[in-house]
């Protein structure tokens, strides 16, 4: 896959967007990804919001570009997880399929693609995104050490 590197900078999600980052986490994502997450969040039912769990991470090959994000939903009413399983195989609550469809629909409409093996892992602009969408080039390559 060839690369047509974008000038999108890595940005601190918590400081630059109306998005929630999981407690104890620090998330850096490419500006274009953050913009798409804001659009996707506006498409969710009012009762839920995204929680960003992971962004750019030099220790994880799937997060080297800043174009991949791990996220889940939380309930606005109580701040509790929105009955979706955690990233590591927790049981699925009865309301999860409906909430998961909301997540999938919103992120897909905003241009992100999903790793079908991990419902929480989405990307834009990286090589998996280019492969999935048929784009001629990936927009984001690995970010060198900060």
Descriptive notes:
The chain has a 5-stranded mixed β-sheet. It is an alpha+beta fold. Helix 2 crosses helix 3. The longest helix is centred in the last third of the chain and has 14 residues. It has 4 helices and 7 strands; from the N terminus they run βαββαββαββα. The protein is globular and about 40 Å long. Helix content is 25%, strand content 22%. It has one domain: Muramoyl-pentapeptide Carboxypeptidase, domain 2.
Q: Quick gist of this model?
A:
This protein is 25% helix and 22% strand.
Task: Give the SSE map.
Blueprint: E1 10-12, H1 13-16, E2 20-21, E3 28-30, H2 31-42, E4 48-54, E5 68-75, H3 96-109, E6 113-115, E7 118-123, H4 127-133
Parallel strand pairs: 2-4
Antiparallel strand pairs: 1-3, 4-5, 5-7, 6-7
Helix pairs in contact: 2-3
What's the assembly state of these chains? single chain
So, CATH architecture? Answer: 2-Layer Sandwich
Q: Whole-number average pLDDT?
A: 83
Class derived from helix and strand content: alpha+beta
Largest sheet data: 5 strands, mixed
How many strands in all? 7
Question: Which terms summarize this structure?
Answer:
single chain; alpha+beta; Muramoyl-pentapeptide Carboxypeptidase, domain 2; 5-stranded mixed beta sheet; two-stranded antiparallel ribbon; globular; D-alanyl-D-alanine dipeptidase; Zn_M74/Hedgehog-like
């Amino acid at each position: 896959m060839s690369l047509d590197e974008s000038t999108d900078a890595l940005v601190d999600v918590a400081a630059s967007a109306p998005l929630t980052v999981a407690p104890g986490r620090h998330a850096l994502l490419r500006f274009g990804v953050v913009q798409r997450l804001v659009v996707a969040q506006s498409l969710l039912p009012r009762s839920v919001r995204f929680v960003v769990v992971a962004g750019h991470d030099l220790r994880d090959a799937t997060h080297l570009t800043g174009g991949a994000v791990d996220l889940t939903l939380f309930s606005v009413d109580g701040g509790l997880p929105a009955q979706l399983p955690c990233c590591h195989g927790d049981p699925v609550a009865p309301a999860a399929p409906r909430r998961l469809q909301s997540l999938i629909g919103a992120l897909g409409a905003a241009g992100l693609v999903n790793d079908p093996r991990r419902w929480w892992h989405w990307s834009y602009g990286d090589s998996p995104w280019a492969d999935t969408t048929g784009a001629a080039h990936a927009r984001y390559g690995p970010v060198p050490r900060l």
